[in-house]
Design a protein that fits this description.
alpha/beta, 2 domains, four-stranded mixed β-sheet, 11 helices, globular, RhgT-like, SGNH_hydro, hydrolase
């Protein structure tokens, strides 16, 4: 009888260990950053942060994404006002994504300490406190602002901070994803018009009901931009040299291709590029007609014209939104004289993913970041106000910004 009870107890212990592993195997990815990371309220749509839909890229049974981005924060203000809530929650095996550098030039100040030292001090604190909990910190440099310039392609608005992130990653021996370089390459690959009107919050009047008069903001991201840069982040995780970061690739959800065509070819000035999406995420398709071209509508992979929008604020017939299903598919932007293109694939999920963005575009080398030095910064110091003039708190959603080469918008 004792032997039977002993075996029963032993089995119970093994079973409890099995369930414990099942419960605690699920990890949380904490997203720490500013307004380009945060969740935005529905009334701000299509404005979204990179962390807002990031959870869709992962298997919900294995990963929880906790977006703790907070508008208007620099490394020091985030640490003082937001970090404690993250630090109290993280546990062994969790991941902590840390992305700052956009606001630090204006708000990352402390008396008697250089701004570079302030930035390094508080990033280091967040990294070390994450490590103390046996969590895995990942440093990410900020996504470039779409400030296209003829001389250096895209202006390095955030100056030394991307470089400081690289230096900190090396000194602290933590993994890094260089979104400064990757986003610069991507923005150059799609071009200025697409970057502004399809990725950033440059909206034409009449596109969305909550932006009746349009919007002009080349810093913040609309949903397409937030998803694009979130997607690039996951691509880097899949192939990362750090095995703990690369392991996240095993936790990701299935991805499905959405091919996008225009018919007849050349009728558009721009159209949403073909890409892939996880199930359940909202996909936004948009096209911009060339002068004199008449848009007839969006058509699905079966050749049927689609109607209705999953996003209630859409007003323009040039925009079609839908929830991604479990199959790869195709959509065609059909203009007068064109015909819908049928999807001929098998609908299967993707098995291969890009590992980066184009390295050479139109003869311009873009794989190395342009770093603004202190010396060259002095040359343009008289113009700095037009790039950095954030003011007036925006109800917890960052700061209002009203000038960058003609662009305006809420929030940092």
């Amino acid at each position: 009888m004792l032997g039977f009870l002993g075996k029963l107890w032993q089995s119970a212990v093994i079973l409890s260990m099995f369930f414990a592993v099942g419960v605690f195997a699920k990890v949380t990815i904490y997203m720490c950053g500013d307004s380009t990371m945060q969740d935005w309220r529905e009334s701000a749509y299509p404005k979204q942060g990179i962390g807002q839909n990031f959870g869709y890229f992962f298997n919900a049974n294995l990963v929880t994404v906790a977006n703790r981005g907070a508008g208007g924060t620099a490394a020091n203000t985030y640490y003082k006002n937001n970090w404690l809530g993250v630090a109290n929650e993280i546990k062994a095996g969790d991941y902590v994504v840390i992305q700052f550098g956009i606001n630090d030039r204006n708000y990352g100040k402390e008396d008697g300490i250089s701004q570079d030292s302030v930035f390094k001090k508080y990033i280091t604190k967040m990294v070390e406190e994450s490590k103390a909990k046996n969590a895995i910190p990942i440093l990410i440099s900020p996504v470039r602002r779409s400030d296209f310039r003829p001389n250096d392609s895209i202006y390095e608005s955030y100056h030394q901070y991307p470089r400081l992130v690289r230096e900190l990653a090396e000194r602290l021996n933590v993994p890094m994803i260089d979104m400064d370089t990757l986003s610069r390459n991507y923005l150059l690959s799609v071009g200025q018009y697409y970057a502004l009107h399809y990725l950033n919050m440059v909206l034409d009047a009449g596109e969305y009901s909550n932006y009746t008069n349009g919007n002009s903001d080349n810093l913040h991201l609309q949903q397409n931009g937030a998803i694009a840069f979130g997607r690039i982040t996951t691509e880097q995780m899949r192939v990362h040299a750090n095995p703990q970061v690369k392991k996240l690739g095993d936790y990701m959800a299935k991805m499905y291709q959405v091919d996008v065509e225009v018919s007849p070819e050349g009728a558009d000035s721009a159209t949403t590029v073909s890409s892939y999406y996880p199930e359940g995420i909202q996909v936004t398709l948009k096209t911009t007609p060339k002068a004199g071209k008449k848009f007839l509508g969006w058509y699905d992979g079966n050749g049927n014209k689609v109607s209705g929008n999953s996003e209630k604020t859409v007003q323009s017939n040039l925009i079609y939104t839908f929830k991604m299903g479990k199959q790869s598919t195709k959509f065609t932007a059909v203009y007068e004289g064109g015909t819908p293109k049928k999807y001929t694939g098998n609908g299967a999920a993707l098995t291969n993913f890009p590992t980066g963005t184009p390295k050479k575009l139109q003869g311009v080398q873009v794989d190395d970041p342009i770093i603004q030095t202190d010396t060259s910064e002095k040359i343009i110091s008289k113009k700095m106000a037009k790039f950095f003039d954030a003011h007036k708190p925006d109800s917890g959603n960052g700061f209002s910004e009203n000038n960058n080469a003609g662009f305006t918008g809420e929030g940092f």
